[in-house]
Specification:
2 domains; four-stranded mixed β-sheet; Rossmann fold; alpha/beta
C-alpha cells in the first residue's frame, strides 16, 4: 500500500515506518519535526509539514495514498492538564483538518494512535475495549474526541478506520538503530535508563499512596515493535465505512517500583529513586486486555516481558547516549 504517516519521525511513528518499508509499502513521513527527528527516518521519505497547515496537507496527500497512519499528537498527561488549549488545538482541531484533507484527496482509511487514557479510572482490570470511556485529563479527552469524529466520518462519508488504544510504549529497535528520544523526557523507562547512565541524579516516583500493591502507579508496558506490527495488521483489516478499536498491551501490570527494579537487573547499575507527590491526571492502575486483537488479527507480541522491553531500550541508550543528537 501507499501509506502517509503523520508524526512518522517520532518515537512510535519511526518504528512503524521502518516496518512498513521492510514490508514493501510506499511511505511518506509527514512531520513538522517539533518532536520528531530527521535521523529517525530515511531522508527520501520525509515531507516536512504541520498538521495545522491545510495547504501542506493537501500537497502531502496529493500523490495517491491508500491509508494514513496518524501519530501527530501531543501526548503528555501533565502538560495537557496545564495547557489544555494546546492539546485541543492539535489533537482535535488540526486532526480534523487532516480528515478534511483526506476527503479532498480521496484517502479512505486511517489508523489512529489513540490511548488507554480514554478509559480514565477503570472499574475492571484488565480493561476490555467495551469498557466505558471516561477520561480524567485533557490528553485522554482529546483522543476520545477524535475517536468520536472517526466514528461519525465512517457513518457519514464511508471512512474506514482503526483506533489503537495504546498502553505504555517502551523499548527500541532490536538492532538499536532507532529508539526513544524526547526533550524533555517524561516517560518512565528512558528516565530510569538515563539515571543508570548517570545522565540524571535520580528517578522521581510520583505518588506512593495509590490503591496498588506497593502504592505506586501500575502500568502495562508494550514493546514499540509489537505496537508497530499491530498497526500494519490493523491497516490491512480496515473496511470502508467501518471502524475497529483495539487495546494494545501485554496484559501484565508493573508498578513504578517494579520498573526501577527491573532496570537495575538489566543494567547492573544502581538507580536512585526519590518519592514525590502525585502528578495530576494519573490513574492508579491501567492494564490492557488485548484478547480482541490477538483473536481477530492474530497479533502476537514478540517482547512480552518487561525485562526484554527494557533490554532493547538499554541497548539504544548505551549506543546513543545523546539520542539522535539533533
Amino acid at each position: 500500500m501507499n501509506v502517509l504517516v503523520t508524526g512518522g519521525a517520532g518515537y512510535i511513528g519511526s518504528h512503524v515506518v521502518r516496518l512498513l518499508l521492510e514490508a514493501g509499502h510506499r511511505v511518506r513521513v509527514y512531520d513538522n519535526l517539533s518532536e520528531g527527528h530527521r535521523a529517525a527516518v530515511p531522508a527520501e521519505t520525509l515531507f516536512v509539514g504541520d498538521l495545522a497547515d491545510e495547504r501542506r496537507l493537501v500537497e502531502g496527500l496529493a500523490d495517491g495514498w491508500d491509508c494514513v497512519m496518524h501519530f501527530a499528537a501531543h501526548c503528555y498527561v501533565g502538560e495537557s492538564v496545564e495547557h489544555p488549549e494546546k492539546y485541543y488545538f492539535n489533537n482535535v482541531v488540526a486532526s480534523l483538518r487532516l480528515l478534511a484533507s483526506m476527503r479532498k484527496a480521496g484517502v479512505g482509511r486511517i489508523v489512529f494512535s489513540s490511548s488507554a487514557a480514554t478509559y480514565g479510572v477503570p472499574s475492571v482490570v484488565p480493561i476490555p475495549e467495551d469498557h466505558p470511556q471516561a477520561p480524567i485529563n485533557p490528553y485522554g479527552q482529546t483522543k476520545l474526541d477524535f475517536e468520536h469524529a472517526l466514528r461519525d466520518y465512517a457513518q457519514a462519508y464511508g471512512l474506514g478506520y482503526a483506533a489503537l488504544r495504546y498502553f505504555n510504549a517502551a523499548g527500541a529497535a532490536p538492532d538499536a538503530a532507532i529508539g526513544e528520544d524526547h526533550d524533555p523526557e517524561t516517560h518512565l523507562v528512558p528516565i530510569v535508563l538515563e539515571a543508570a547512565l548517570g545522565q540524571r541524579e535520580s528517578v522521581a516516583i510520583f505518588g506512593t499512596d495509590y490503591p496498588t500493591p506497593d502504592g505506586t502507579c501500575v502500568r502495562d508496558y508494550i514493546h514499540v515493535y509489537d505496537l508497530a506490527q499491530a498497526h500494519i495488521l490493523a491497516m490491512e483489516a480496515i473496511e470502508p465505512g467501518k471502524g475497529l478499536a483495539f487495546n494494545l498491551g501485554n496484559g501484565s501490570g508493573y508498578s513504578v517500583r517494579e520498573v526501577i527494579e527491573a532496570a537495575r537487573r538489566v543494567t547492573g547499575r544502581p538507580i536512585k529513586a526519590v518519592e514525590t507527590p502525585r502528578r495530576p491526571g494519573d490513574p492508579p492502575d491501567l492494564v490492557a486486555s488485548s484478547k480482541k486483537i490477538i483473536r481477530d488479527l492474530a497479533w502476537k507480541p514478540e517482547f512480552p516481558s518487561l525485562e526484554s522491553i527494557i533490554e532493547t531500550a538499554w541497548r539504544w541508550h548505551v549506543a546513543h547516549p545523546d539520542g539522535y543528537g539533533d
